[in-house]
Design a protein that fits this description.
mainly alpha; 75% helix; globular
Length: 351
């Protein structure tokens, strides 16, 4: 047990929440560099073992049916290893085995990837492994595979242009009801993080030009629907305002109170501004959810991407540097004025 655990238990005793002595724990705390070394060693061991097997049976694995059977066997073996995991070495060894098995399955389906059949199979595989595999990293990677397979399935549908708003709405709902799935946090949390990163990546793709999107889509047919992009931005702004309203309700703040009016007006203003500086509503949404849920990781994701979106908007402006400077000064003064108005309203209420 470390000193932090003992200090926490002493605080609980002082608050009379617990009365007994601190129970002994079997959890061992290893330095981070030892865990990293164990993980890297697990990858090396897995690749050497798998490389030897593939070198011996390379002719058989080239057959699609055989590759699929071997891939499924590796995934099942990885699951069994995960169930017995007691170190970072074993966990990373199992992860390497599972990724190899999934690669073999994708190789077996490579002829089906020219239409939606292969991507549906990858979506099913990713979603199943995201729920079944008892590993945070594996669930995160499998969830990402499932989401991007869904994107490839929808490439020929006009709704693909609205997928960023759909995914942002789904991940926002997940984070808003976090207290309801804490008992299943081990399964749902990595999925929520995967959806968060996927939402940011998909929204970034909608900001590319048609030529850049064509190069990203490679040879896949991309549905015509650029007119959906403004609708997607308005939906994202609406999700942000709805999230602010939901958080006000969570903390029992009336919409008609001064706090509620200031929060809703600020949210609406930011949603409107995000139609010009695309991406601000999404990043502030994750900043707000991270702050509300005391989730430092989610807060850091939102804060870092906010500066990236802001830098993008600044550099694509067709203005001289002097005019950009004036714009930044005006924006700063506007935000300071909003801050002052908010303080004045709050002081009046307290008085």
């Amino acid at each position: 047990m470390n000193n932090q655990d003992q200090l926490l238990w002493q605080k609980l005793q002082q608050a009379e929440i617990v009365t007994s002595e601190m129970p002994k724990s079997d959890i061992e705390h290893h330095p981070w560099y030892l865990r990293v070394l164990q993980g890297v060693t697990g990858w090396f061991a897995a690749w050497f073992l798998l490389g030897s097997v593939f070198a011996i049976f390379s002719d058989f694995i080239r057959q699609e049916s055989t590759a699929f059977v071997v891939g499924v066997m590796l995934i099942v073996s990885a699951y069994m290893v995960y169930k017995r995991k007691n170190s970072d070495f074993v966990g990373q060894f199992a992860l390497a085995m599972s990724l190899t098995g999934q690669s073999l399955c994708v190789f077996a389906w490579h002829k089906l990837l020219h239409d939606s059949t292969g991507w549906w199979l990858m979506l099913l595989m990713g979603a199943s492994l995201a729920w079944l595999m008892p590993s945070f990293i594996h669930r995160f990677l499998s969830s990402s595979l499932a989401v991007w397979s869904l994107v490839m399935v929808a490439m020929s549908w006009p709704i693909v242009w609205l997928l960023p708003a759909v995914v942002v709405g789904a991940v926002t709902l997940l984070w808003l009801i976090e207290s309801q799935w804490l008992l299943h946090s081990e399964q749902i949390r990595p999925i929520a993080y995967a959806l968060t990163f996927a939402a940011l990546n998909m929204h970034s793709l909608t900001l590319l030009s048609p030529q850049e999107l064509a190069s990203v889509g490679n040879h896949y047919h991309l549905a015509n629907g650029h007119f959906f992009i403004p609708l997607n931005e308005w939906l994202l702004g609406g999700i942000f305002v709805a999230t602010v309203a939901a958080l006000l309700q969570r903390y029992q703040v009336s919409y008609g109170s001064k706090h509620g009016i200031v929060a809703l007006v600020a949210a609406i203003c930011l949603a409107v501004l995000s139609q010009e500086a695309m991406g601000l509503a999404v990043t502030w949404l994750f900043i707000l959810l991270g702050f509300a849920n005391s989730n430092k990781t989610l807060f850091a994701i939102g804060a870092s991407t906010f500066w990236l979106y802001l830098a993008r908007y600044y550099y694509i402006l067709d203005m001289t540097l002097l005019n950009k400077s004036y714009l930044l000064i005006a924006t700063g003064l506007f935000l300071l004025a909003l801050r002052k108005i908010g303080h004045v309203l709050m002081e009046k209420k307290d008085a």
